[in-house]
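Structure in, sequence out. Go:
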């Protein structure tokens, strides 16, 4: 009886150190290239950016910089050669901060790209009503095949 109890405890302890299947499915092979709180579209959605010119035009077209006759120097991030580059618009929000500052991981299941991002912290007080249309650009491995993108918020 004592050896059975010890065997059960050993099995329980070996299982406790094993990560769960859901967290092991997320890959950390992603980079957040650009994230802005303004300049996105009214509707949530995504598109794959094909090349360097499209990449620069997307950043330039969505930037908050106002052109006053001279174009300011913009330091564009490098366009990755062996990864897919994805633009994701979060849609329109009436208050709060909804910009993405970090990507915890990405995974693909049933042609859906799941992007895990930290959940926003509620402020707990009254907020000024400011309409924002946040967007961000990130990379995924080039072999990922997907036709939709969903955000997964985590703590």
């Amino acid at each position: 009886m004592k050896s059975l109890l010890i065997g059960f405890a050993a099995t329980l302890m070996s299982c406790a150190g094993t990560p769960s299947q859901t967290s092991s499915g997320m890959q950390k092979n992603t980079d957040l290239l650009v994230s802005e709180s303004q300049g996105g579209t009214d509707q949530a959605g995504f598109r794959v950016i094909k090349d360097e010119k499209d990449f620069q035009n997307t950043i330039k077209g969505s930037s908050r910089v106002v052109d006053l006759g001279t174009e300011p120097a913009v330091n564009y991030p490098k366009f990755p050669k062996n990864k897919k580059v994805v633009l994701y618009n979060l849609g329109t929000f009436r208050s709060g901060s909804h910009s993405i500052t970090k990507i915890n991981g990405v995974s693909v299941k049933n042609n859906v790209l799941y992007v895990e991002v930290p959940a926003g912290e509620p402020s707990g007080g009254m907020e000024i009503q400011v309409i924002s249309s946040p967007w961000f650009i990130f990379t995924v491995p080039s072999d990922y095949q997907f036709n939709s993108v969903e955000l997964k918020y985590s703590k």
